[in-house]
């Protein structure tokens, strides 16, 4: 583990060109600065190994050692068949940054795909698991692979919504609340005919999004009929664009809520097929894992993907220090970004 020079609050502030008061407020989560400044301060403190008194007390209260005599090695499991590479990069970034604070190592491991002829158990037998200190299980893994990983007798953190009665700690960004935030914002802007776009069955998180949409719309006094929305899996994007255009007309929708991480260009293209311009004729809210450079001012709920990775790392260290404690499931709720893709109706 690299040796860290002792750093004080004043020294950290000087390095950042900020006042000690500002740095202290940033690390304690107090208001009075931009989120960009807060993020810079938090990252610098983490890199330097600086902890506030409350952070030190928190580690002590949860029996998490700040330093260990030798680094631990953890694995992040993923498959080459997973879509959304940026999603996993964000999760990994959060995990690795947090583990580096404690001097630990996180390595990625590509699991066999669903079409691989070797069994998952044979693959596991070749991986020298005796040298693993714990594993992180990300979202959207094939169900069989996830079950095999959850059955391993070593510390595990599921970065996903757990299935019923699953004996594992889990951390995930709260997509259910994100959908409710989106519906609330759109209805406050006088949109009641909202077209929902997104698969509803492929993964547990997708089912949660659809359920949250139906509940939020019903609470707003609007009935949801599945046949009026685009809720199937995307096989052909041209056919999908035709379906979106058709449903926009049938529902006479004034807004779109895209509940999956589509390329926004396809949303704009599908809307244009129906003769709709965003946001002049049709407002748009979309769930994205991070800020999209194609539509930087996209109105969206903030999904705390990288933060979920960091929290998963903390939960791993907590579980190792508290092996007999009850399992815990953590949902991270983000804020809502009011961009320029929604207009009041």
Your description of this structure?
- By secondary structure, the protein is an alpha/beta fold.
- The protein has helices at residues 9-16, 20-27, 35-48, 53-61, 85-101, 120-125, 143-150, 175-188, 204-219, 237-251, 264-273, 305-321, and strands at residues 73-79, 105-111, 134-137, 156-158, 169-173, 194-197, 255-258, 283-286, 300-301, 329-332, 336-337.
- The strands form three sheets. It has a six-stranded parallel sheet, with helices on both faces. A three-stranded parallel sheet has the order 6-7-8, sandwiched between helices. The protein has a two-stranded antiparallel ribbon with strand order 9-11.
- α1 (9-16) crosses α2, α8 packs parallel to α9 and α10 (237-251) crosses α11.
- The radius of gyration is 22 Å and the shape is globular.
- The N and C termini lie far apart (58 Å).
- The mean pLDDT is 87.
- Side by side, the strands of the main sheet go 2-1-3-4-5-10
Number of strands: 11
Largest beta sheet, briefly?
6 strands, parallel
Amino-to-carboxy terminus distance: 58 Å
Number of helices: 12
Strand content: 5-15%
Low-confidence stretches: none
Mean pLDDT: 87
Instruction: Summarize the amount of helix as a percent range.
Output: 40-55%
Query: What is the assembly state of the chains in this entry?
Result: single chain
**Form type:** globular
> Structural class, judged by helices and strands?
alpha/beta
Whole-number radius of gyration?
A: 22 Å
Could you spell the SSE succession in H and E letters? HHHHEHEHEHEEHEHHEHEEHEE
């Amino acid at each position: 583990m690299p040796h860290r020079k002792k750093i004080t609050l004043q020294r950290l502030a000087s390095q950042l060109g900020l006042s000690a008061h500002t740095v202290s407020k940033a690390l304690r989560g107090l208001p009075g600065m931009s989120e960009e400044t807060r993020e810079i301060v938090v990252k610098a403190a983490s890199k330097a190994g600086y902890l506030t008194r409350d952070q030190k007390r928190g580690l002590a209260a949860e029996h998490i050692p700040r330093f260990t005599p030798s680094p631990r090695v953890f694995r992040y499991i993923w498959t080459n068949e997973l879509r959304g590479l940026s999603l996993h990069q964000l999760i990994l970034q959060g995990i690795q940054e947090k583990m580096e604070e404690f001097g630990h190592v996180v390595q990625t491991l590509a699991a066999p795909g669903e079409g691989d002829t070797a069994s998952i158990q044979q693959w596991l037998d070749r991986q020298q698991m005796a040298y693993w200190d714990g594993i992180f299980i990300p979202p959207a893994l094939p169900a069989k692979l996830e079950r095999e990983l959850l059955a391993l007798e070593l510390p595990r953190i599921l970065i996903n919504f757990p299935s019923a009665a699953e004996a594992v700690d889990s951390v995930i960004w709260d997509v259910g609340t994100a959908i409710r935030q989106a519906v609330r914002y759109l209805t406050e802007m006088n949109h009641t005919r909202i077209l929902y776009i997104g698969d509803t069955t492929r993964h547990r998180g997708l089912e949660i999004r659809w359920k949250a949409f139906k509940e939020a719309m019903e609470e707003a006094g609007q009935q949801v009929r599945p046949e009026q929305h685009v809720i199937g899996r995307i096989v052909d994007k041209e056919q999908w664009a035709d379906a979106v255009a058709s449903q926009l007309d049938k529902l006479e929708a004034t807004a779109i809520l895209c509940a999956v991480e589509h390329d926004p260009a396809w949303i704009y293209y599908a809307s244009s097929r129906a003769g709709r311009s965003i946001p002049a004729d049709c407002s748009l809210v979309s769930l994205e894992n991070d800020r999209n450079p194609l539509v930087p001012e996209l109105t969206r709920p903030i999904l705390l993907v990288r933060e979920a990775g960091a929290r998963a790392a903390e939960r791993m260290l907590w579980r190792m220090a508290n092996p007999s404690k009850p399992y815990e499931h953590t949902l991270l709720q983000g804020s809502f970004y009011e961009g320029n893709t929604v207009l009041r109706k």
